[in-house]
Amino acid sequence: MTLTLTDARAIIDAAEAKALEIRQPMNIAVVDVGGNVISHVRMDGAWLGGIDIAINKAFTARAFDIQTKELGENSQPGQQYYGIAASNHGRIIIFAGGIPVLRGGEVIGAVGVSGGTGEQDQAVAEVGVEAASE
């Protein structure tokens, strides 16, 4: 089972609505179960540099089946995942905004959001993930 383009559109629509609500332009990416991009949107005014970050947040969340926020907390010096950000040719992102999408208890893809503070990115990603389960 994997996310579909229809799922990705629903995720992006919901996440984009949240970004508009908080008045923060975002990059929103959705990947399938294999970590491949299904869809990405860069809202008007969102950072160009955030495109790669959003896509890589989604990839990271799927590659390790963990929220990037949690991975970041566990990758600090002395923690179990210290140094993980240097793996996978630099694609690993260790700050908030990447969340795996589960259906029936299985990871079927992930969402990555970039463009605001970590809290804003996380909030927008969470709304996207909620839309995937509807």
From TrEMBL:
Transmembrane segments: none
UniProt xrefs under Pfam families: HbpS-like
PANTHER family: PROTEIN GLCG, SLR1406 PROTEIN
The protein's name: Heme-binding protein
Lineage of the organism: Bacteria, Bacillati, Actinomycetota, Actinomycetes, Micrococcales
